[in-house]
Amino acid sequence: MDKMLYISMTGASQNTMAQRAHANNLANISTTGFHRDYEQARSMPVFGDSYPARVYAMSERPATDFTPGSLQETGREMDVAIEGQGWIAVQAPGGGEAYVRTASLQIDALGQLRTGNGLPVLGNGGPIAVPPEQKVEIGQDGTISIRALGEAPSVMAEVDRIKLVNPDPKTMEKGTDGLIRVKGATGPVAADAAVRLTSGFLESSNVNAVEEMTAMLSLSRQFELHVKMMRTAEEDASAMARVMQLS
Questions:
Q1: What DSSP element (H or E) covers 148?
Q2: Distance of alpha carbon 64 from its chain centroid, rounded?
Q3: CB-hemisphere CA count at 13 Å for 73?
Q4: CB contact set of 26 (below 8 Å; sequence gap of 6+)
Q5: For the CA atoms of 234, 237, 239, 243, what is the dihedral angle to 10 degrees?
Q6: Cβ-contact 214, 81 below 8 angstroms
Q7: Contact 52, 145 (CB under 8 A)
Q8: Residue among 1, 75, 64 nearest 37 (CA)
Q9: Does residue 56 have a pLDDT over 90?
Q10: How much is the pTM?
């Protein structure tokens, strides 16, 4: 009975972990640029004193769905998103290189170009610094042009270019901080001149609310079955104890 109870307990525990994955996806349905996590379960044989006649389920998050979300117009010139395939290079909090698909760009008090959550945007030679300006324009190739203070409206100067990359999606993974990185990368990824930006738009989350809700309902029913199995194991153990008392 203890083996039956253990198998049902591990099933319920792993089922709860699967629920967390879908709940996290659903919670980020309105987060711009969010990529949903896949969730799957696989059978693991239980090895013991005899042949592995029992199996238990193990929930895991094997990968992230990098399907682009839809572009939503904001009208703000400093909001940028990737058209098609590609990524915007940013500096992660630990100092390494990470990648995002969309960003609500801002210029801080020191003139550094940052994403909406404060990450420095990388250019040709590192984090981009923008001189004092009246106007900022971002081209499709990532070129940043400014009209300096006191200059005529027709005078625009190029200050840097946002680093745009396009690594193989199979080599990319999402970290615990939510940022996308290239697995096993020993250095920065080379820029790709074919990647294009569009300004005035942000990319929405690629989470499908119906799919996530359906998966959560299915997992809830599975959890109920695991709990019933644990109750059955308890009842069987009680019945066996009564038989032993009679003998």
A1: strand 143-148
A2: 6
A3: 1
A4: 207, 209, 212, 213, 216
A5: -170
A6: no
A7: no
A8: 64
A9: no
A10: 0.80
| Separation CA 47–CA 226 (nearest Å) | 21
The residue type at 240: M
Long-range CB contacts (within 8 A, 24+) of 122-130: 122/89, 122/90, 122/91, 122/97, 122/162, 122/163, 123/160, 123/161, 123/162, 123/163, 124/160, 124/161, 124/163, 125/160, 126/91, 127/91, 128/159, 128/160, 128/162, 129/159, 129/160, 130/159, 130/160
**What confidence tier does 240 reach under pLDDT thresholds 50, 70, 90?**
confident
DSSP 161-217: E--EE---GGGEEE-TTS-EEETT-SSPPPP-TT-EEEESEEEPP---HHHHHHHHH
Q: Closest Cα partner for 160 from 121, 194, 189? A: 121
Termini Cα distance of the chain: 19
Could you identify the residue written with the tokens 């420095």?
Answer: 120
Secondary structure (3-state) at 22: helix
Cα 191 to the center of its chain, rounded Å? 22
For 7-16, 49-58, 102-111, 166-175, which range has the lowest pLDDT when averaged over its residues? 49-58
Helix then strand then coil, % of the chain, to nearest 5: 25, 30, 40
Q: Using pLDDT thresholds of 50, 70 and 90, give the confidence band for residue 210.
A: very high
Number of Cβ within a 10 Å radius of residue 224: 12
What count of other Cβ atoms lies within 10 Å of the Cβ of residue 154?
6
